[in-house]
Amino acid sequence: MFMSSAGKLRLQNREKKIMAYYDDMGPGKGNCTVGYGSLVHRNPCTPDELKTPVTQEMVSNLFSANVRDAEKAVERNVRVPLTQAQFDALVSYTFNRGATGARSVYRLINRGEFHEAGLEMRNSTMVKVRKKGKLVPVIARGLIDRRTEESAPFLAAPTQKAGSTVQ
Question: What letter does residue 35 receive in the DSSP assignment?
Answer without folding.
Answer: E
